Amino acid sequence: MPSSKGYLVSPSRLASLAALSWFAAGSVHAITIDGRLDEPVWRQAQSFTDFRVTEPLTRAPAAHATELLILPLPDALYVGMRAEHPPDQRTHGHSPRDAPNMDADPAILVIDFEGQGKTAYEFTVTISGSKRDSIILNQSDLSRDWDADWTAQTSEDAHGWSAEWRIPWSTAPEGTVRDGKRTIGVYAARYIKRESVRYAFPAIELLGANFVRDFKHIEIPHYNAPTLDLYPYASVTHDTLRGATRGRAGFDLFWKPNGRNQVSAAVNPDFGQVESDDLVVNFSAIETFFEEKRPFFTQGQQLFDLRMSTLGIDVSDRLVNTRRIGAAPDAGAEGASDILAAAKYTGISGDHEYGVFGAQERDSLLAQGRSFLVGRWRHVHSDFSLGYLGTATRHPTLGRDAYVHAADLNWRPAPGLALTGLALLSDIHASTAGGSVTGGSATGGSARGYGGWARLDYQPGGRWQHQLSASWFDRRLDFNDLGYQIRADLAEVKTDSQLFIRQYRHGSIADNGYWHLALDYPYTSHGERLVATDEFGHYFQWRSGAGSYLFYLHEWPGFDDLLTRGNGSLRMPARHNWGIDYQSAIHGRFRFYAAAYAKEQGFTSYTHELQLKPKFFVNDDLSLELILDYADSPNWLIWVAGRQVGIYRRQELSSSFGANWYPTSRQELRLRMQWVGLAAQARQAYNLAADGTPEPVGVVPIDFTVSTLGLQLRYRYEFHPLSDLYVVYSRGGDGSLADRSETLREQFTRAWNQTDTSLLFVKLRYRI
Asked: CA-based, 20 to 30 A from 276: which of 104, 179, 385, 730?
């Protein structure tokens, strides 16, 4: 393998690459993607070997040598990685596509194709061949919804293993081209699971304040690679309960005339889910967020992905939530709406990015189809970007038109420092009074609302890391028609600080860790004090490869204004919450996660919760996984009706069993069964007094049972990236009762016997 040079590509090397263009032009692919890196053309690649330890962030030289090869050719960007690693230190195991936590040692590649430090694309492949791709927005916002056309393979030998990527130029927009050259940013890493250590080049902290900006910038030749891809599909759905069969056909079209413009369209698309959503029992006033899994909406969507995220929050407000499109109609019993057509355009001109995106639903039995339109513009220059996003949603059945306008700012004034902000305006025109169609805010009729959000990140790479965010939403702000809004009527300040211990002293059972302090002080926009929280915790990374987190979270006295769904604010007392978890070392055939919590719920008493997630690998290609989450609460507080809330004795078990088999690199067979059972025994009802104090009443609420079951057996055959055959069987059962409580065993039996959904789904999607 060639030695490291460590510099930007030299003129002589550019000349060598240009001379190779005839070689690539003479064949479809210049390199066979098999993970071996044995083609002669790899000798012309740029080589980088200065991998250093970045997890923990010591920047010490890597214990095992790693070499990164970058080779641009006319048809694609080729990347190779050679990793030295003794056979007995490697961790294997197949994972599902886009798994957040890969089960085998990964080779991580992240590319900023525009070279401007604003958006990057992840291409990860593990030693066992599993793949994951994602988009990184605003340096640290990670979106796993994205799926792209790329290939990668790995290969092992006695000294180590290697990974080989082919990423077509059409995968992402290109940056400025000057004199036939362009600049890209590159980050590469490998994670050794047995030691819980990350080696990276360049040696920067993952998802730091200037993560994408600090990539290694490489000048490469510019290749114009226009593409036109047609994805026709055909699908058949058979309802075994009703004996009904439905067939559909349509196509998706993706046209990229050059590296700076892309048009995509879908005609009569089939957005049937081939991956089932998690079963969720949600009694809170905040809507459950589900990730997007439909191919058309996951491709080329990054320009429109504008969100308000903070550390420690899994789900954040966002202005475009494509799961609204094709959701249940505004009237009628259907669970989803058919989509007539959807189209999208994105382009780049100089420092300007722009795009438009729209979709139209078909009419259902009782409702007219909704219309959705999004426009986006962003100016990017050096350390500063300024943008605008506007959305329009029409609900003809409800006589409601919703318009949202947002201006966004992103500024990087210094290394390790970043400022992100949004100014928001919603304008709702409704012919009749009514609440928000999709939930989350309590506006009705015609209204105009305002809001703002800002986040300051300080991550210089030393021991301290801080994040400060502030939000202000007035009570009329509503961007839920096409977005996802957790709540309106909010004035909130959050801080999140971490003090890292990069290395414990020699002989300690802990290798590294950090202290964590998070503060959240929320008020309503008119000054009512909501429940504030302080969280203090410590994470230990043990030398064995395992990890543990211990925390205490204190809730201060305040008001809960969401629980009663707009019928008054409930005065809440101070409450205490404790927790500890343990993640075993991620190697070997058996791995597990365990957590225990003691949380005060209601007005007194603790809820005790236990989580267990064991996983067993029969071999590298077959794994079994069980998830159990049991909660026992003597004082569960939920809304009953109007200004009344109730206290229940709750026993809840959320469980999931999964089996994943990968007989070949192109095939997967996955079985997943989920069951959620909840038994609620009523203990006491309370009415809200004028000042929000709960006052007990003599009427006792009714006991109830929630029991829901879902099973999916899915076979997938991948012809090539984004071209698949799916055969899916799905079954659902509901054993819920509105008038009494049952034991968990009785609930499961009822849900298993009372099948309400049984579907066989076959879909073929193939790229031409």
From this structure: 104
pLDDT of residue 224: 86
The DSSP call for residue 66 is E
Contact 736, 707 (CB under 8 A): yes
Q: Which of 31-35, 111-115, 592-596, 720-724 is least confident?
A: 720-724
Max CA distance (Å), the chain: 88
In order, the DSSP letters of 40-62 are GGGGGSEEE---EEEESS--PBP
Q: How many CB atoms lie within 10 A of CB 14?
A: 16
Q: Which residues, including other chains, have CB under 8 Å from residue 316's CB and lie 6 or more apart?
A: 307, 308, 309, 310, 486
Residue with the two structure tokens 């040598």: 65
| From the candidate CATH numbers 3.40.50.2000, 2.60.40.1190, 3.40.50.1000, 3.30.750.24, the one assigned to the domain spanning 11-224 | 2.60.40.1190
Q: Per-residue confidence at 11, pLDDT binned at 50, 70, 90?
A: very low
Query: Domain residues of the chain, as ranges?
Result: 11-224
Interacting residues of 758 by C-beta distance below 8 A, sequence separation 6+: 239, 240, 241, 730, 731, 732
Q: Which residue has the tokens 């090397």?
A: 13
Token pair, residue 763, equals 């879909």
CA 259 to chain centre: 26
Output the pLDDT for position 310: 80
Average pLDDT over residues 301-305: 89
Residues in the chain: 768
Cα(686)–Cα(57) distance, rounded to whole angstroms? 52
pTM: 0.88
